[in-house]
Amino acid sequence: MINIYNESILVCVYYGPNGERLIKRGCNIAKMLKAPLYILTVDEKPFDELDAEKVFYIEQWKKIADEHQDAHFIMKDNEKRPVSKVIAEVARKKNVTQIILGQTAQSRWQQITKGSIINDLLHDIPFVDLHIISVSRYIRNDEGLYEKGVRAYLIKEGNHYKLSFNHTKDSVYEGIFFKEIGTDFDNGLFRFMKGAETLQVQVCDGLVTDFTNIDASTAMSLNDLDNE
């Protein structure tokens, strides 16, 4: 692909369902401008200390990047510097001209939408256009909705799928299970990749009988994910 407009796009994502939306926005802009696309996430922990939920999102983002021409995934783990400094460094190295950020309060990225951090970015990389994208909100654990997600699998059994927390040769889908708080049964939501599509389906007593995608952000009143 010839970059006729001399543009380069950087999408900054954090864990949660909004990352995929931001990446798709970046893909559309990159395709329109025939520009390279970089997908960046930052974590203060080393990669081998990340939990199953975070690793799942990273795997999703890598897969999306692999499916788009001239898209590259960048993971900055064990990073103690301010997020704005990391973004600026990547922007300089990759000759980025446009940055896409999600307007979210998730973890360290809540700083991004505050004026001081935006000013830091504008000061450090004044040659870059910043796009602040409004995003839907996510599950907050202390609202009594769902427990922290854990890695799980779906095994085909007749006309339905059985939830399992152990990987076996019969595992069909791998994803993250969010258990409803206050129940002794495996009721909740299972999020996984089916081909190029991300699905979130209902789990009732450890079984999935319907692959209808559930949009939890609109079906319930949800808030931002807590800092860890």
TrEMBL record:
SUPFAM superfamilies: Adenine nucleotide alpha hydrolases-like. Residues 8-126 form the UspA domain. It comes from the Bacteria. This is Universal stress protein. It comes from Pallidibacillus thermolactis. The lineage of its organism: Bacteria, Bacillati, Bacillota, Bacilli, Bacillales.
